[in-house]
Design a protein that fits this description.
With about 260 residues, the protein is of the alpha/beta class. It has two domains: about 5-65, Hypothetical PUA domain-like, domain 1 (Ribosomal Protein L25, Chain P); about 80-260, 3-Layer(aba) Sandwich (Alpha/beta knot), CATH 3.40.1280. About 30% of the residues lie in helices and about 25% in strands. The protein has helices spanning about 20-30, 80-90, 100-110, 140-150, 170-175, 200-205, 225-230, 245-260, and strands spanning about 5, 15-20, 35-40, 45-55, 60-65, 90-95, 115-120, 160, 165, 185-190, 210-215, 235-240. A hairpin with a 4-residue loop joins strand 3 and strand 4 (about 45-55). Helix 3 packs parallel to helix 4 and helix 3 packs parallel to helix 8 (about 245-260). The radius of gyration is 21 Å and the shape is elongated.
Length: about 260
């Protein structure tokens, strides 16, 4: 069933009025008609099946109401098994800041894959001027919201503020220090193949994944000094034995590969 993320709360009578950009999305993109059903995920939490009861093209409004005609006992809070595993595992993408257009693509793809946090990192080869970027901009929030609606992801993906590379080890340690080795995984994608392992070897030790971190370099890659720092912080260097990948492709490839292995 198609999904929509509402910023507005459900009214006391069980209806939800949609207008503005959300109207255009439901009407022009999803092409909803009166009587269609849709799952509405509210920003404050909760998933509710609703029916389109009225579309007013003149005032550009859509009225949704709680659907009471579903099969008895149907629980829309229960997600498919593969979705549950995505929700239960916190996936963090540490991304050396690339050019803005590429970063937007990475945000969209990471959101669709159910990444929990995207942490932009200022590295030796990251985009010049990255410290001036607004990583909490309305544009980035819009990309995340649209990607969640398109993919139906239950994960509330968010972008953290920019951190410097030397802050990354403490950031990872503070968030994963209480987990055992078979509950956490930290991987860095490295373009060189010296002192690296395959992505399958990197994932072997994790049996009960609670938290996963993936570090991906920007267009210029990762410096040898940075690789050593990441290794010391518990990251396993992985070399993907495939074609040379752009940073936006490598990030998506790495996320998908790890999720396929651990799930």
């Amino acid at each position: 069933m198609r999904q929509f993320i509402s910023q507005a709360p459900l009214s006391s009578n069980g209806t939800l009025k949609i207008c503005g950009k959300d109207y255009r999305y439901l009407h022009n993109v999803l092409r909803l008609s009166a009587g269609d059903m849709i799952q509405v995920r509210f920003s404050e939490g909760g998933l509710q099946p609703m029916t389109v009861c009225r579309i007013n093209e003149k005032s550009k409004e859509i009225l949704l109401q709680i659907c009471d005609t579903l099969a008895e006992g149907k629980n829309f809070e229960n997600q498919p098994e593969e979705t549950q595993s995505i929700e239960e595992t916190e996936f963090i993408l540490f991304m050396a800041v690339p050019k803005p257009a590429k970063f937007e693509q990475i945000i969209r793809q990471a959101t669709e894959c159910g990444v929990s946090k995207i942490v932009p990192v200022k590295t030796e080869f990251s985009q010049t001027g990255s410290e001036k970027m607004n990583f909490r901009s309305e544009r980035f929030e819009k990309i995340i919201r649209e990607a969640r609606q398109q993919s139906g992801s239950p994960v509330n993906t968010r972008i953290e503020n920019l951190i410097k590379f030397n802050e990354l080890p403490d950031y990872w340690k503070s968030g994963s220090g209480n987990l055992s080795d078979n509950e956490k995984l930290a991987v860095v994608l490295y373009e060189r193949n010296n002192s690296t392992v395959s992505i399958f070897q990197a994932c072997e030790k994790i049996k009960n994944p609670k938290k996963i971190a993936l570090f991906c370099g920007s267009e210029g890659g990762i410096s040898p000094d940075e690789i050593e720092v990441l290794k010391s912080a518990g990251f396993t260097a992985v070399h993907l034995k495939t074609n040379i990948l752009r940073c936006e492709t490598a990030a998506l490839y790495g996320i998908a590969a790890i999720q396929s292995i651990i799930n």
